[in-house]
Amino acid sequence: MNAAPAPRPARTLPGLFLLCAGLLASLAAHAGRLPRSEPVPGGVFVSALAPAATPPRANYDGRRVLVIRGAGRWYALVGIPLRARPGKVVLTVHEPGRTRTVSFRIRPHRYPTQRITLKNKQMVTPSPKELRRIRRELARIHADLRHRRPSRRVDTAFRTPIEGILTSPFGARRILNGKPRQPHSGIDIAAPAGTPIRAPAGGEVLDTGDYYFNGKTVFIDHGRGLVTMYCHLSTIDVRRGQTIKTGQVIGKVGRTGRVTGPNLHWGVSLDGTLVNPLLFLPKPTVAALKQGARTQSPIP
Ligand SMILES: [Zn+2]
User: Fold this and answer.
1) Of 136, 219, 273, 294, which cross-links 206 as Cys (Cβ 3.0–4.6 Å)?
2) How far apart are CA 44 and CA 10, in angstroms?
3) 168 CA → ligand 1 middle, Å
4) pLDDT exceeds 70 at position 15
5) Do the bridges between strand 187-190 and strand 196-198 make them parallel or antiparallel, or are there none, so unpaired?
């Protein structure tokens, strides 16, 4: 007699729950794994590609770009050079069985100008002998930044390497002792000398060195064209070829090279293009760096 249908909520609620859980999981994967898309000079353009079993290949401006998997589909992460001119540009995507183009617009962006006074004048106008050393070092630094290692996994969910105060933003146009110099290709975080610097994500130590401008430096290869660099260290605590985990100490904050005080210069290179490291950090961490506050819980 009781022909009442099975109560609907019992059937639909778990379905709804699964849908919500799935949505949250995909949002979490997006937020945790990908940098923020900011198509400006020195920024990153994140392009969602088709879900496919095999990774598509993508090229921009004659370079192969990093393609990573997140939330069941592929994403191309395009590093835009600081010297790029605003306007429409094209990403070429080779998917299984077809080639297509994705156009996007590089938006104009105004970076601040920083005037810095250095007591050591040779750091502003080096001698011919020092210039020869600088050229040799630049060739090696550029080769390291363009390094591409095949890797199954590429972790782009970065932690900040140190907590401190952001003293010089990415892209700042710099005037040293009244002379215009190259724009800032990383960020500077000021912290007491000796503060441990931790790997923002796992990878392999690509190179270490002691350079004229950059001082003691470590390069981490995160795989497939994602390389990070750490400069002005007092000590280097890793060696070339060493595998490192997220949060592992790679060195200590110092004042080697061209500095006005102890700080970490942090650079992020995407397929040989130096881009804004802040795009790889969660927004609360960026806000904390701008205020010099603590937000990050230590890694045990
Ligand atoms: Zn710097």
Assistant:
1) 219
2) 45
3) 7
4) no
5) unpaired
- How far, in Å, from the CA of 252 to the mean position of ligand 1? 16
Q: Residue 236 has which token pair?
A: 């280097």
pTM: 0.85
CA 212–ligand 1 middle distance (angstroms):
13
CA of 172 to the centre of ligand 1 (A): 10
Residues 6+ apart with CB under 8 A from 129: none
Residue 93 CA to ligand 1 center (angstroms) comes to 34
Q: Which region holds residue 82: left if phi is over 0, alpha if psi is between -120 and 50, else beta? A: alpha
- Convert the pLDDT of each residue in 229-258 to its tens digit: 999 999 999 999 999 999 999 999 999 998
Task: Find the 64 Cα to ligand 1 centroid distance in Å.
Answer: 27
DSSP, residue by residue, 227-255: EEEEEEEEEE---TT-EE-TT-EEEEEB-
Separation between Cα atoms, residue 292 and residue 263, nearest integer Å: 13
Cα 191 to chain centroid, rounded: 20
Q: Going from the N-terminus, what domains does the chain have, and what CATH number goes with each?
A: 35-106 (2.60.40.1590), 113-291 (2.70.70.10)
Q: What is the mean pLDDT of the segment spanning 257-269?
A: 94
Q: Report how far ligand 1's centroid is from the alpha carbon of 186 (Å).
A: 6
Ligand 1 centroid vs 129 CA: distance in angstroms? Answer: 23
168-213 tens-digit pLDDT: 999 998 888 888 888 999 999 999 999 999 999 999 999 999 999 9
Tell me what the pLDDT averaged over the chain comes to. 86
Please give the residue that has the higher pLDDT: either 300 or 81: 81
CB atoms within 10 A of CB 298: 9
- Give the pLDDT score at 181: 82
How many whole angstroms from 287 Cα to the centroid of ligand 1?
19
